[in-house]
Amino acid sequence: MTLTYINVRPLVGGKLKDLCNIVVKDGKIAAVGKEREGEIVDCGGAVAAAGFIDIHTHGGWGHDCMEATEDCLATISAYHLYTGITSYCPTTMTASPEDIEKAIACIRDYRRKSPYARIVGAHLEGPYLSQKAAGAHPPKLLISPLDDDSFVEGNLDVVTRVTVAPNVRGADVFTAKYAPKGVQISLGHDNSIDDEIYACVDAGANSVTHMYNCTSRPSRRDNPKKHLGLTEVGLIDDRIVDEVIADDRHVPDKLFGMIFKLKGAAGICLVSDSLSVAGMPEGDYYIGAGDSKQSIRVEDGVAVLPAENTYAGSVTPISVMAKRLIANGYSIEDALSMATLVPAKLVGLTDRGDLVPGMLADFNVFGDDFSVRMTVLGGNVVDRDALVAKRG
């Protein structure tokens, strides 16, 4: 099937182009220019960009990927597509190896079936995290990768990325083993010093998990020498891309401005870190499943752990983050690139993240206020109202 989306200003290679057309054939972009073929869809001069890619998200619309069922992943995938996410990495919580295996197996089985947002692969956030920076992860279930890495080694076909604390025993060995095998290693939930961090970066780690949330600061160990933490290394090392939850809560707007000043758009990857409660009314809920199940409360636009008096993951979709950044004065190109080009490059996706011939025809068309007005998946306009039926 051939369609042409006319009168769009596409973001191509991080730059906005003049009005032109996007020709789609068999689910892929065939041309971006003056050509017209097949059925015509008039976009009325709106900005278009590749579909958002969320590489760190636990769930939405009442479901968590740790539930490890096809229905839960279908609902999560529908939620993300509703918000303009066309590709994502379901993210596990720290749990027993058996529960993690179940979640990975479910992701493997469902990702080829999904009629909703595309599943890139699994992101394992734990259990290789620091006891002193566990956040919402159950400390009793944290382990060293030297203790057990079987659920990574046995699932290289579906595990796309893993978060590791550099100070956990064997973190650099784990990184050196799996980064060359195509697993994107992100550093986070740590109590590290710079020597440990650089050992992992030198071995192939290239991102920080949710910057300023459970990322270490300058500290001392056994002598007066002060070391940089992961926060500082993530800000100054150009080899590292920083995940940022740009919701003005996990990272306040002024703090985001500092990160942007140091890293620029190419060094920032917007992530939602959304929980099962994303897209749900305010109230009391649970996150995780089995041993990782915890009470959580959604109030005033953010999710908190009442017992800890701290933020958990986010309930703000990337589409809202990008819209807020544009409203706060960041360029359209920068705000949208941080949610398209950057995550695609970080996890090695070469068939999406930009609007160029040969790539998947997954893109968003925006309204005047940069809300998502229309989402296209595989060349076809998504019926966003129909997606709401999955919410139940």
Fraction of helical residues: 10-25%
Q: What is CATH's topology name of the largest domain?
A: TIM Barrel
Strand percentage, roughly?
25-35%
Shape, principal axes of CA atoms: globular
Provide the low-confidence segments as ranges.
none
How many structural units, i.e. domains? Answer: 2
Specify the CATH homologous superfamily of the largest domain: Metal-dependent hydrolases
Structural class: alpha/beta
Characterize the structure shown.
With 392 residues, the chain is of the alpha/beta class. The chain folds into two domains: 2-49 and 356-385, Urease, subunit C, domain 1; 52-346, Alpha-Beta Barrel (TIM Barrel). The protein contains eleven helices and 25 strands. The protein has helices spanning 70-82, 97-111, 150-153, 171-178, 194-203, 230-236, 253-263, 318-327, 332-337, 341-346, 384-387, and strands at 2-12, 15-16, 20-25, 28-33, 39-50, 52-57, 59-60, 63-64, 85-92, 118-119, 122-125, 159-164, 184-187, 207-208, 219-220, 226-227, 241-244, 268-270, 283-287, 294-299, 302-305, 310-311, 363-366, 372-377, 380-381. Strands 6, 9, 10, 11, 12, 13, 14, 17 and 18 form a nine-stranded parallel β-sheet that branches. A hairpin with a 2-residue loop joins strand 7 and strand 8 (63-64). The longest helix has 15 residues, at 97-111. It starts with a strand and ends in a 5-residue tail after the last helix.
